[in-house]
Design a protein that fits this description.
Elements lengths: L37 E4 L2 E4 L13 E12 L2 E12 L3 E5 L6 H9 L6 E6 L2 E5 L4 E2 L7 E4 L11 H11 L4 H14 L15 H13 L5 E5 L7 H18 L2 E6 L2 H7 L2 E6 L2 E6 L1 H6 L4 H6 L4 E11 L2 E6 L5 E6 L10 E6 L5 E4 L10 E11 L3 E8 L3 E8 L9 E5 L6 E4 L1
Parallel strand pairs: 5-11, 5-12, 9-10, 10-11
Antiparallel strand pairs: 1-2, 3-4, 3-6, 6-7, 7-8, 12-13, 14-15, 14-17, 15-16, 17-23, 18-22, 19-20, 19-22, 20-21
Helix pairs in contact: 2-3, 2-4, 3-4
């Protein structure tokens, strides 16, 4: 394991009380930042409102954001955002470039000032536009790993990691103890004297993580932390960072456009689009039950088949696919009412589609579609198969290499009804 296990005396995570403002705020109640407000006292969670017993079952919110907005000229980068980040969880902002995820992180870190909204951290307000509160970045007790890592080339590994402690005027002996301890934690023990330019990409990433963790913040901010690594090292670092986060029990806010990173690392994901949160939930929730066509199409791969709604009765919709010889699909559907004759789309994840060899006219079973293999791409462990349905519709699925496939073969696609979703057009 590249990251070592947590030392016994490591204090990170939510086990200590943090007051980033340096003083309590008697007007905290006015913020109304959480329905079930919690405080941390002597390492134990205490409920402020004992009548809300359900709140005791949830970890306390390390970060509470309400009504956060930011514009750059006429561009609305973040629009009225509300979200909580819980203690000990990895929370990911996922979305395409320009959706507002990095702006949100910079607002939280203090590198940008919001136009509207409020942020509380560790039970204390650090930003309130209406009340004129804005705590400086260095007093927010947050560690940050930048996309470029920002390793100073004129400094050694030790000096790079020690920098946050020196700016906080920590004593020399304590600096050495904490830096060496943190370097051991991230698997860089013995490299403290190496110059920054002589580090590999993976080592630079570890130095950036060590520098963010050395002063034991309560929240770690990660801005596209793996984008500069090659594919194999990126996969390795994801696993190691997940293990480290669990060891330290520290809350993490990850910003990424990489779906694999988001799904594999996160406890919860907020999918962003044009400054808004389209959907928030666990990785399984946002992947399996997307709340909008944007989430459906952005997260993972999806097959979308246009059709006409034939009927909707007791949560079941029947859709006729014009491109597939007017084949009918039966789908479980609990959305808004669909009128007979209305244009709709049926969507399904390709990994749940079964592909079997079949003769012409072999689609006698419900929810099966006939197609023809148009192209095969060998991927090593499987084939990527482009299948033509009718004259204008094509779908892309993966098929096992254990079966001999030939371009031009007729196949039958099985579409399980429990995995189909219907979307009005």
């Amino acid at each position: 394991m590249l990251f070592a296990s947590r030392p016994r005396h490591w204090r990170g995570g939510s086990s200590r009380k943090v007051d980033p403002t340096g003083a309590s705020d008697p007007g905290l109640a006015e913020l109304q930042l959480s329905q079930a407000r919690m405080s941390v006292r002597n390492g134990e969670r205490i409920s402020v409102d004992t009548t809300e017993e359900a709140a005791l079952e949830q970890p306390e919110a390390v970060v509470q954001i309400r009504g956060l907005s930011k514009s750059f000229g006429s561009v609305r980068a973040v629009s009225g955002m509300d979200l909580d980040i819980r203690a000990g969880e990895v929370f990911t902002l996922l979305g395409p470039s320009g959706c507002g995820k990095t702006t949100t992180l910079r607002l939280l870190a203090g590198f940008e000032e919001p136009d509207e909204g409020e942020i509380a951290f560790g039970g204390r307000p650090i930003v309130s536009v209406s009340r004129g509160i804005s705590v400086p970045p260095h007093r927010r007790d947050m560690g940050m790993v930048f996309q470029s890592y920002a390793i100073w080339p004129h400094m050694s590994v030790f000096d790079n990691v020690a920098y946050p402690l020196k700016t906080r005027r920590v004593g020399r002996d304590e600096i050495r103890e904490r830096v060496l301890r943190t370097l051991k934690l991230v698997g860089l023990e013995g490299l403290e004297d190496r110059p920054g330019p002589l580090l590999s990409g993976g080592q630079q990433q570890r130095v950036a993580v060590a520098r963010a963790l050395v002063y034991e913040p309560r929240l770690l901010l990660l801005d596209e932390p793996f984008s500069n690594l090659d594919a194999r090292l990126r996969e390795q670092m994801r696993v190691e960072l997940k293990i480290l986060q669990r060891e330290l029990n520290i809350a993490v806010l990850l910003v990424t456009h990489d779906q694999v990173e988001a799904l594999s690392l996160s406890d919860r994901i907020a999918v962003m689009n044009a400054g808004n949160v389209e959907q928030m939930g666990t990785p399984d929730e946002v992947y399996s039950t997307p709340a909008s066509p944007f989430v459906r199409d952005f997260l993972g791969r999806v097959l979308v088949l246009p059709g006409i709604a034939t009927s909707q009765v007791d949560g079941t919709a029947t859709v006729t696919l014009a491109a597939a010889g007017h084949q009918q699909l039966v789908c479980d559907y609990n959305g808004a009412a669909i009128a007979t004759g209305q244009s709709v789309s049926v969507a399904i994840r390709p990994e749940v589609v079964s592909v079997t060899a079949g003769a012409k006219g072999a689609t006698s079973q419900m929810n099966s579609i006939e197609g023809r293999i148009e192209a095969l791409l060998f991927l090593g462990d499987s084939y990527e198969c482009r299948i033509e349905i009718g004259e204008e519709q094509h779908v892309l699925v993966q098929v096992p290499r254990t079966i001999k496939w030939t371009e031009g073969d007729t196949v039958v696609l099985g579409l399980p009804r429990e995995h189909l979703t219907v979307w009005p057009q």
